[in-house]
C-alpha cells in the first residue's frame, strides 16, 4: 500500500519496513516530523525512515497518515 501512495519501499522479512524519504522535502527527518504531527512515531535515518509493523489498526492509521503527508 505504501508503494501505491508513491513511496519507495524496500522488501522486508523483518518486523519493520524501510521507506526511502530522499525525495520528501526535508528528507527522512521532515517525513518523521510530519508523521509525528499525525500521531505516528517512526525512526528517521537520514533519507530512510524505519517503520515498525504493528496491529492492523495501527497499520491502517499509518497508511492514513502517510497519505495525509504525501508530497
Name the features.
alpha+beta, 34% helix, globular
Describe what you observe in this structure.
The chain has 71 residues and is of the alpha+beta class. The protein contains two helices and four strands; from the N terminus they run ββαββα. It has a four-stranded antiparallel beta sheet, with helices on one face. A hairpin with a 6-residue loop joins strand 1 (8-9) and strand 2 (16-20). The longest helix is centred in the last third of the chain and has 13 residues, at 56-68. The mean pLDDT is 93.
What is the structure about, briefly put?
The protein has 71 residues and is of the alpha+beta class. The protein contains two helices and four strands; from the N terminus they run E-E-H-E-E-H. The protein is globular.
Q: Given the structure, what is the number of helices? A: 2
What do the pLDDT scores average to? 93
What is the beta-strand fraction?
A: 15-25%
Give the tally of β-strands: 4
Portion of residues within helices: 25-40%
Cα(first) to Cα(last) distance is: 16 Å
Overall 3D form? globular
Going across the biggest sheet, name each strand in turn.
1-2-4-3
The string of secondary-structure elements, in order, is EEHEEH
Radius of gyration: 11 Å
Low-confidence stretches: none
Could you give a short account of the major beta sheet? Answer: 4 strands, antiparallel
Amino acid at each position: 500500500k505504501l508503494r501505491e501512495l508513491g513511496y519507495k519501499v524496500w522488501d522486508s522479512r523483518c518486523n519493520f519496513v524501510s521507506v526511502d524519504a530522499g525525495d520528501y522535502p526535508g528528507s527522512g527527518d521532515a517525513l518523521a516530523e510530519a508523521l509525528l504531527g499525525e500521531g505516528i512515531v517512526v525512526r528517521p535515518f537520514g533519507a530512510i525512515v524505519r517503520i515498525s509493523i504493528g496491529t492492523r489498526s495501527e497499520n491502517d492509521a499509518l497508511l492514513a497518515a502517510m497519505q495525509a503527508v504525501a508530497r
